Amino acid sequence: MKKPAQSVLPGHDLITERWSPRAVAEKPVPQNVLRSLFEAARWAPSCYNEQPWAYLVAAREDKDSFEKMLSVLVEFNANWAKGAPVLAIAAAELAFAKNNAPNRNAQYDTGAASALLSVEATARGLAVHQMAGFDQEKARQVFGIPAGWEPIAALAIGYPGDPASLPQPLKDRELAPRTRKPITEFVMAGHWGHTASFAMK
Ligand SMILES: Cc1cc2nc3c(=O)[nH]c(=O)nc-3n(C[C@H](O)[C@H](O)[C@H](O)COP(=O)(O)O)c2cc1C
Questions:
Q1: pLDDT digit string (tens) for 54-70?
Q2: Residue 177 half-sphere exposure, CB side, CA atoms within 13 Å?
Q3: Residue 11 has pLDDT above 90, yes or no
Q4: Is the CB of 131 under 6 A from ligand 1?
Q5: Which SS3 state, helix, strand or coil, does residue 163 take?
Q6: Residue 20 C-alpha to ligand 1 middle, in angstroms?
Q7: Among 176, 87, 178, which Cα is nearest to 131's?
Q8: Is 90 exceeded by the pLDDT of residue 198?
Q9: Residue 168: phi, psi to the nearest 5?
């Protein structure tokens, strides 16, 4: 299923067509395709080119890792994400490698890497659904994530599936229109709270 953004202005297909489905097809993700997603993440910009991100990835075939991934998700997410062929956790290193000073952009940069990964996925007919709903401490324990690294978000990766495969409340959410604030609410100029003139029609 496609669910393009209903933009006021036309945008690039890669942006309008990216969305976060919960219905995911059983079809596995070929290894070269999976590699291309993380290659996209690799080329994200980052503060001082620190590249403070890391991903733990589990394909369904790797039963142990996949079960470990499911075990750290909150129940709501585990219930639908168990259908995805690939699950992952994005983590950020919170200090610069060169001097151990705090990197206040580490989470921001990791989000940028995941955003590029999602766009590459869209280009390849895949979908990525990110999740904050997982147990960070459990993820640390289960995967041995070291101190200094923060698990930020889980990701379900796969080919979009049939919404009919979802239980009713999730099916309704799957079929509901995608909504966003207008840009007038978050694009300012001159002073906080003053909408930029170009943002207004
Ligand atoms: C950091 C982050 C955390 C999210 N956490 C969850 C989650 O735990 N469970 C879930 O079902 N969706 C989660 N989402 C998906 C959002 O709800 C979704 O991106 C948003 O509603 C916009 O929909 P769209 O991505 O289809 O445009 C998360 C998305 C992001 C970026």
A1: 999 999 999 999 999 99
A2: 5
A3: no
A4: yes
A5: helix
A6: 7
A7: 87
A8: yes
A9: -50, -50
